[in-house]
Design goal:
The complex is a heterodimer of chains A (244) and B (185). Chain A has three domains: 2-57, no CATH class; 65-121, no CATH class; 134-243, Immunoglobulin-like. In chain A, 38% of the residues lie in helices and 23% in strands. Chain A contains seven helices and eight strands; from the N terminus they run H-H-H-H-H-H-E-E-E-E-E-E-H-E-E. Chain A starts with a helix and ends with a strand. The relative contact order of chain A is 0.11. Chain B has helices at 6-20, 24-46, 49-66, 77-95, 124-134, 138-150, 154-161, 165-183. The longest helix of chain B is centred in the N-terminal third of the chain and has 23 residues, at 24-46. Chain B is globular, with a radius of gyration of 17 Å. Classes of the chains: A alpha+beta (244), B mainly alpha (185).
Amino acid sequence: MNSTFESDKDNLRYAEYALGLLDADARAAVAREVETSPEAAAAVALWQRHVTPLALEITDIAPPAHVWAGIRRRLAFDAGTPSRESSRPRTSVWDSLGLWRWIGVGATAVAACLLVITMTRQLPPPVAMHPSVLMVSTIAGDNGVAGWTATMDIDRSELLVVPASPAAVASDRNTELWLIPAGGAPISVGVFPPGDPKRFHLAKALLDRLGPTAALAVSLEPVGGSPTGQPTGPVIAKGAIRAA
Amino acid sequence: MPATSPADRDELNRLLQRTAEEDQRAFEELYRRTSSRLFGVCVRLMGDREEAEEVLQEAFVTVWKRARSFDAKLSSALTWLVTVARNKAIDRLRQRPDLRPVEVDWETLVDDGPGPAHGAESDEEYRHLQACLAELETQQRRSIREAFFGGATYNELAERAKVPLGTMKSWIRRGLLQLRACLNP
């Protein structure tokens, strides 16, 4: 039957799209169908559900920390306003401005300025809150006991380590704190007294590498800290960094 | 990647739905939980770490912007996320013909076992798919798997398998129809 044949053909295209077989034009055509036809969207989603379990065979790889920083930058999270909020009204301001000029409604410079001012005032106010500005980490030993907690204030470029139940440390050893970016080598934050709170200033290079895939660790080092720039003694505690 | 438990799935769905409501913390948590999986998929498809990093960034930017189009009735959050990442990777492979999809060795990739998947066997959908793939002829199964993991077009697959384009199309299409009958009885 012709209709069955046609729908089989469509369905095969959707399967080919889900597998990734189509060339750029054919891919774009299916992507448009998915946007406009609920039936196409459902058929494509069904094929994706069928084939995606194959991805279970792929080994996980932790992405480097700068990837997350790049995503935040692209979405302008650190500017305080998510780009989804900020980009749309701005585009429409310019669209409207162009339209005004085009249809010649007497958009003098003054009128244009007023238009911008008026429309800018209707923009949502910048969100003052920075949801991820505070990050925390519980730095615990292998026995699960928290040795220290760390709080990172990105705005102030500060990290505060506070002892919880720190392990006893021999007097000829120092505890050194390390930031470990996912898949990267540890970066020294500094030496700190194990039993007292200590505030560190975080250099820009360190700040850039903080993120939900990074971790903190404490190692035992000679007095004055690791001579090599990398941990030389045993790691006695570690903890993932997460948004506070 | 390890299989997900039903509780993990619910949690990821919830995080993605909160991302759709522009909850940055939920988005960050979603990234923390899924970026290694998605990055593995990107590296596999792109065959190049730097390209994969770029694709992963584009994928998560799209996740933030398009989370509202996620429909929990049509797919799980993880499937949706992997699909976004795969689509970004494949689009990039098509835009940049100089980035050849990863050459996959026909003999080592595939045909019988579930490969190195830790815990994949415990995933019910995976087991079902694997059982249906096992019913296909070897060439059909290989070609479908190669298409999934390599993001290659029919032409590229035919070239690699050294068969005419028509043969490759027929292997894959017959395989897909058979697979559909097996997966949606």
